[in-house]
Amino acid sequence: MGNWKKAGLICAGFVGGAAISLTLTVFADKDVRTGLPIEELRTFAEVFNAIKQGYVEPVDDKTLISNAISGMVSNLDPHSAYLDVDAYKELQVGTQGEFGGLGIEVGMEDGLVKVVSPIEDTPAYRGGIKSGDLIYKLDDTLVKGLTLSDAVKRMRGKPKTPIKLGVLRKGESKPLEITLVREVIKVQSVKSKLVEPGFGYLRITSFQENTVASLAKHIGDLYKDGALKGLVLDLRNDPGGLLNGAVGVSAAFLPPKTLVTSTDGRTEDAKRQFFTTAEDYLRGSGGADPLRDLPPEVRKTPMVVLVNGGSASASEIVAGALQDHKRAVVLGTQTFGKGSVQTVMPLPGNTAIKLTTARYYTPSGRSIQAKGIVPDIVVDDPANGDSSQRLREANLDRHLMNDKEKDSGATAKEAPKLQAPGQTPGKSPAKPKGGKEDADEGELPTRELASKNDFVLNQAINLLKGLQILQTRQ
Questions:
Q1: Using 50, 70 and 90 to split pLDDT, how confident is the model at 447?
Q2: Burial of 157 per CB tally in 10 Å (0-12, 13-18, 19+)
Q3: Domain co-membership, 80 together with 102
Q4: Domain range for residue 12?
Q5: Is residue 348 part of a domain?
Q6: Which stretch of DSSP H or E encloses residue 51?
Q7: One of 70, 206, 313, 387 is an active-site residue; which one?
Q8: Residue 166: which CATH number?
């Protein structure tokens, strides 16, 4: 391939209306050349020539080559892709945390667009799009036959313009039609609230360029009146984003020079370790360290991290690091399991390929790929139904296997498990009575920040109070 140009590592899945984020800039300065398969290339040339001469309509060379590259890359795994001019531009814009679209992270399955997770405070979230939904039609266009990039382009558009989605949903006897209105998506990646005196709540919705700085500001606000007794970090339904953002968030709660994650692949550039140092989370920007003036108490405050099946990639890096270093108790349900790193390699003509180049590991060496983070305490979220039915990395076609464990689909059976009141173990919560059964089943969590009705959050606060009592007695 010759000398690679500037490239970036990313740890987020495909996104339709959500950011696919660049991370640490790396250089591959070695000249890697491999022998070309001459016979196979001759077959390719014959097919190319047959299409040029005999296809019912003329097709230009650029389209044929682009389609060939796209097919070659996209068939590797669910997260590798060819980025044409528009897709590459959208990726770069997405790192700023502001972009146009619907607000859903998506992948491809059986030729249909599969929803990984809707992003909070977006048209998709408000319109009732759910994890696991299969989008089979965009307005009057069937998704079958489209590439993921083509489908994403159709979902994007000018703000205030509508799009009708044809949706197949498990448990529904017939297809759904959901109309959403596009808007400029501005992701507020960090939110916070003092849940009650002495107990703070931090919510990270995605990992963007400004996430670490925003987190520092919110921590400062929570600690302005003194140290806290407990802190909840909510990573539920956070699809990931920037790798350096995950390192920075971890650095806010861990001691300096602590290992956060490591990556391993075939090239030397893919073999990296990332620590809680400014050079690893500032990504060489040379700016001021936003974590420099954090209150020192934040690294000692008892913590609980909330996760679920929608916590992916960068979220899993943070949860895994805090769990391995015994800095926090991880509470919730098993996470999505995206433990691979993608490198964006620019190509001529303002295009690029997004190629899976490494797996990433927790500080203790655990691979998250196709397994996820197993919580210390399993608490099913009654607002999200049966967690065992949720889409995960292991459900995606052509997903990478977990290289550390034979049973990459292992569940969290060994962890203590709490149930919501009225919920039978192993079953979804009972439907509420009163005529809203269909509307309430599997409903997304309330948009109220740190709601008093959030069962999982309440369990976290109760746990923190118990830890506080134990610390007082010591």
A1: low
A2: middle
A3: no
A4: 7-88
A5: no
A6: helix 38-54
A7: 313
A8: 2.30.42.10
Asked if residue 107 belongs to a domain, the reply is: yes
Does the annotation count 324 as an active-site position? yes
Write down the catalytic residue from 137, 338, 354, 371.
Answer: 338
358, burial (CB in 10 Å: exposed 0-12, middle 13-18, buried 19+): buried
Residues 306, 262 share a domain: yes
Query: Which tokens sit at 468?
Result: 């506080």
Digit-coded pLDDT (tens) for 364-382: 999 999 899 999 999 987 6
Query: 226 and 291, same structural domain?
Result: yes
Give per-residue pLDDT as tens, 140-198.
999 998 888 789 889 988 889 999 999 999 889 999 999 999 998 777 899 999 999 99
d(CA 195, CA 449): 9
Give the domain-ending residue among 166, 185, 204.
185
313 is catalytic: yes
Cα–Cα distance, 405 to 422 (Å, whole number): 35
For 20-34, how does the pLDDT look when each residue is reduced to its tens digit (9 = 90+)? 333 333 333 444 456
Spot the catalytic one: 84, 324, 376, 380: 324
| Last residue in a domain, options 185, 209, 232 | 185
Q: How far is residue 93's CA from residue 285's CA, in Å, rounded to a whole number?
A: 17
Is 251 inside a domain boundary?
Answer: yes
My answer on whether 394 and 437 are in the same domain is yes
Q: Which residues contact 317 (CB under 8 A, 6 or more apart)?
A: 11, 243, 246, 247, 250, 260, 261, 360, 362, 368
